[in-house]
Amino acid sequence: MDTDLENLLIYRNYVELTYYSYQITKKFPKTEIYGVESDIKRILNEGLENIILAQKSRDVKERIQYLNKVDCKLKSLKFYVRLSYKSDYITGHNYGAWSRKIASVSNMTGGWLKACLKH
Which of 7, 44, 8 shows the shortest CA–CA distance to 24? Predict the structure, then answer.
């Protein structure tokens, strides 16, 4: 694996968010395998891809586009986490922990975006 990527804090936190999300979705009803669970996993995978593309991009405008896509994926994920809680697929504790992990990555994305905009 690319050592630059491994050293990127947002990447490590996003991977941790993904691991947590995959563990939590195991609690979902089997009827959601091709519904909410599938959507969550797709969003996570696309977000990770955009982080990798942003890290590899040398063009600031392109990097900003990838980071905006990551931000959109995180906002979509927040919706699905809320939906999962309201549908009683996860507990309040899971909801809080999952939301905090998303917020952490979201804050890092915002910081990276601000740094790009300064250039």
Answer: 44
Distance between CA atoms of residues 86 and 31, nearest Å: 16
Report phi then psi at 57, rounded to 5.
Answer: -70, 135
pLDDT at 1: 46
pLDDT in tens, 50-68: 999 999 999 999 999 999 9
Residues 6+ apart with CB under 8 A from 28: 36, 37, 84, 89
Cβ proximity of 50 and 70 under 8 Å: yes
- The candidate with the shortest Cα–Cα distance to 50, out of 100, 10, 19, 16, is 10
Task: Return the percent helix, strand and coil in the chain, to nearest 5.
Answer: 85, 0, 15
Share of the chain above pLDDT 70, in %: 97
